[in-house]
Structures are given as C-alpha cells and as structure tokens.
Specification:
two-stranded antiparallel sheet; 7 strands; 3-stranded parallel sheet; 39% helix; 293 residues; alpha/beta
C-alpha cells in the first residue's frame, strides 16, 4: 500500500528480491534479472532459468550460495551487522541471505518438488491446471521449520520469512494472476503468517517488533499458450530464428557452454521482457571465432 516502494525493471523475482534486500537497484547489485549475461566474464547467470528447463541453478541458491555470490553490494544483513556486530539474523527460504546467522529451509523434498513442478508446468504443460497443493506444502514446511526453531532457541533480532508459493502458483494459475493471488493470500498465506504471529504473541515479542510485508513484483495477465510462449519455442522458432537469419550465432539455451563456443548473440529471458546481447561481429567474423564482449 506504500506507492513509494517500486519493483525493479525488469520486475522479475531474483533482481527484485536482491534490490529489496540491499536497497540498491540492479545497475548497482549486478543482478539484472532471472537470467542475464555478464559480458566481462562471458558468464550466463541464471538464478531462475526461464529459457531452459533446469531446476538445479535455483536449488544451488540454497546449496551453494549461487545468488549470494552474484550480488556486488552489501546486503541489508551485512549493513546491520556493521552497526551491531552481535545482531542475530535468521532468514527463512529467501534467495539472498549473505550476512545472516541462519538460513532455515523447508524440507528438501518440498523445495525440489515445488521448483521442479513449477519448471515442468512452464515448459511441458502450458494447458494444464497446476495444483496449488505443491506450493502450499512448501510454504507450510517453511513455517514448520521456523516455528520449531522459535520454540527451542533464543529469538532472533531480525527475521525474514519468504513464502514462495504466492509467486510460484500465481505465475501459472488457470484463473489468472489477480484471482490466483487473492485466493492464495487468503487461503494459504494468511494461515501461515497467523501461525508465526501466534508464537511471537505468546512469547511477548509481537508488540516490540517492526513488521514489514513486501513482495518482489506484481503479475500481468498474458496469453498462456504455446503460440505466444517465446521461451517454449527454444532454438527452433521465435527470437533465435530471427537472430540466426540476421547472421548471428546464438549461444545455446543452457547455463554453461564451452569456453571456445563461437556464439555472437545471447538471449536471456525474463517474463514480460528479455535481454538480447549482440557481439561486434567485425571482431569475430569467422564461424569459429570466439567473440569478445
């Protein structure tokens, strides 16, 4: 309800959450979308792949600090710790947690099923009606682990709880984003937040806490079929074909390629917008010339 808080451009999950958790825009954080190309390193960054079907990069956010390593500015947690070295910070399920004392995760099986379910629906079953049960299970499991720690351990000074199901379900719901978001907030999020509120109230902490409720981005209704799904067409149609006909060599739609791959154009998808990176082909005119960026 605060109109001064704006999402990023592009308004996609990873760059928006990084902006929220650093207070800096993508131009400063270095995280420019769910997918983007770091030209200086010839590195394709994809904390949330859109152009190809693979849940591993997103899972590596939690297992290998993938997103933490991409962010080029201090997080809010690091800035708080500079001012208050002994502050206790817990993060539950949020993608960016560098500087926190604890990262609390839902059961691994719940995370894997939700992410893989989201990816497979996006790529393979655009006409199917996804069940919200996968995502409700994920959010419930996240709150379960949080309540377990709140019950046993001294309470933290800072707590970030991310309920991912609102975003994951709304992206694909057959009823459209507005109806899906309202239903999920009322049916799932309200109940799960209520569980946390009850515990904090019983421990006498609720009246001494600042509580902020934020989101990463809104959702815009789109035509949800294969004819309009540019990412679904992969390398055989749409933008890749257009670029190829213009003489560019397209980087394969995957996270890693060989260092000697001679691509001269890179596509990075991002929902309503996409990035197109084009090399100066005068520096790599041969079919096997590796382009500089």
């Amino acid at each position: 309800f605060d109109p001064s808080l704006l999402s990023t451009m592009p308004s996609t999950t990873m760059d928006a959450w990084v902006a929220a958790m650093t207070g800096r825009p993508p131009a400063d954080t270095g995280v420019a979308g769910n997918e983007y190309f770091i030209r200086e390193k010839r590195q394709f960054a994809c904390p949330a792949p859109i152009s190809f079907d693979d849940a591993d990069p997103t899972l590596s956010i939690y297992t290998d600090h993938y997103l933490d390593k991409l962010v080029e500015v201090p997080t809010v947690y690091e800035r708080l710790r500079q001012r208050e070295p002994h502050i206790q910070i817990w993060v539950v399920m949020n993608h960016l947690f560098r500087g926190a004392d604890r990262m609390l995760l839902a059961r691994r099986t719940a995370i894997v099923k939700a992410i893989e379910g989201f990816v497979s629906k996006e790529f393979d079953e655009l006409d199917a009606k996804p069940s919200p049960a996968l995502f409700e299970t994920l959010d419930s499991a996240a709150v379960d682990v949080l309540l377990d720690h709140l019950d046993k351990d001294p309470l933290p000074d800072v707590l970030t709880l991310y309920l991912a199901g609102t975003d994951l379900y709304t992206h694909q719901a057959a009823e459209g984003p507005d109806a899906a978001r309202r239903w999920y907030l009322k049916t799932v999020v309200d109940k799960q937040v209520g569980r946390v509120v009850d515990v904090l109230r019983k421990k006498g902490r609720l009246d001494r806490e600042w509580v902020m409720v934020i989101a990463d981005h809104g959702h815009t209704q789109v035509v949800h079929d294969k004819q309009h799904a540019l990412g679904e067409a992969a390398m055989d149609a749409g933008p890749p074909t257009l670029l190829r006909q213009a003489g560019f060599r397209i980087r394969p739609l995957k996270q890693d390629v060989d260092d000697k791959d001679p691509f001269s154009a890179v596509l990075a998808y991002g929902g309503a917008t996409a990035y197109v990176y084009l090399a100066d082909r005068s520096t790599c005119p041969g079919e096997k010339d590796v382009c500089g960026w």
